[in-house]
């Protein structure tokens, strides 16, 4: 295998097995080994109740194992949905999160987020996301060379779908905007990152064609410098 290893970090309601197809597609397009962090919906529930430290530890463990097995110095993180926000915590910064300072930026070359809710309204129920934005704002480590890429889907417009609008308004005030059926475009674009908007992409395979549906879709957002050959 060639290139930096890849670690996939799943979202709030996803199980690791749901990323097997995406992992296979990433192996094909990158020529690198791919590992899926062992994070389940139960870990997210536990984190909501008692803190997200264990969840971030699972990301750190997946990255450490990927680097150990590959002999590489840095990994590529691919975070789907809330997993992309958790990756930002692992990448870390100067401020401690939950009493611990994370420095994963020393072990990561790229952060690619797929439909992650980065930008949200100022509401009490969204305070965990607001805290991440306050502590680790935008593409924090971009000046040091870490490449940030945020990918947003725009297949479902909130002005045309009442269900999509309701989902978007969990994150923003006015849901009559484009998005992937769960996260609106404006939330998924991390300030300071490179941005890709996929007009035909939904949030997950539960809806229809999503970020990891097929080889053609993955090639739309996978960075050129990380491709095999």
List the helices and strands and how they pair.
Layout: E1 6-9, H1 20-30, E2 34-36, H2 41-50, H3 53-70, E3 75-80, H4 82-91, E4 108-114, H5 127-135, E5 147-153, E6 156-157, H6 162-168, E7 178-179, H7 185-188, E8 194-198, H8 215-221
Parallel strand pairs: 1-2, 1-3, 3-4, 4-5, 5-8
Antiparallel strand pairs: 6-7
Helix pairs in contact: 3-4
Observed structural traits:
229 residues, alpha/beta, six-stranded parallel beta sheet, two-stranded antiparallel sheet, 8 helices, 8 strands, 33% helix, 16% strand, globular
3D architecture notes:
The structure is a single chain. The protein is an alpha/beta fold. The chain has 8 helices and 8 strands, in the order E-H-E-H-H-E-H-E-H-E-E-H-E-H-E-H. The chain has helices at 20-30, 41-50, 53-70, 82-91, 127-135, 162-168, 185-188, 215-221; strands at 6-9, 34-36, 75-80, 108-114, 147-153, 156-157, 178-179, 194-198. A 6-stranded parallel β-sheet has the order 2-1-3-4-5-8, with helices on both faces. A two-stranded antiparallel ribbon has the order 6-7. Strand 3 (75-80), helix 4 and strand 4 (108-114) form a beta-alpha-beta unit. Helix 3 (53-70) packs across helix 4 (82-91). It starts with 5 loop residues before the first strand and ends in an 8-residue tail after the last helix. The mean pLDDT is 95.
């Amino acid at each position: 295998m060639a290139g930096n290893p890849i670690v996939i970090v799943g979202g709030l309601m996803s199980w690791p097995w749901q990323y097997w197809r995406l992992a296979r597609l990433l192996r094909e397009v990158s020529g690198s080994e791919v590992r899926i962090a062992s994070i389940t919906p139960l870990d997210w529930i536990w984190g909501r109740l008692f803190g997200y430290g264990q969840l971030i530890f699972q990301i750190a463990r997946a990255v450490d194992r990927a680097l150990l097995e590959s002999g590489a110095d840095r990994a590529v993180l691919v975070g789907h949905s809330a997993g992309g926000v958790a990756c930002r915590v692992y990448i870390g910064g100067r401020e401690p999160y939950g009493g611990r300072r994370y420095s994963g930026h020393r072990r990561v070359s790229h952060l690619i987020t797929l439909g992650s809710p980065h930008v949200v309204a100022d509401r009490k129920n969204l305070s965990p996301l607001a805290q991440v934005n306050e502590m680790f704002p935008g593409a924090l480590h971009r000046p040091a060379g870490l490449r940030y890429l945020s990918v947003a889907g725009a297949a479902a417009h909130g002005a045309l779908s009442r269900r999509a609008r309701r989902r978007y308004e969990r994150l923003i005030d006015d849901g009559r905007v484009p998005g992937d059926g769960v996260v609106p475009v404006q939330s998924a674009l991390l300030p300071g990152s490179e941005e890709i908007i996929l007009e035909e992409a939904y949030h997950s395979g539960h809806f229809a064609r999503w970020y990891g549906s097929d080889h053609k879709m993955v090639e739309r957002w996978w960075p050129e410098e990380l491709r095999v050959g």
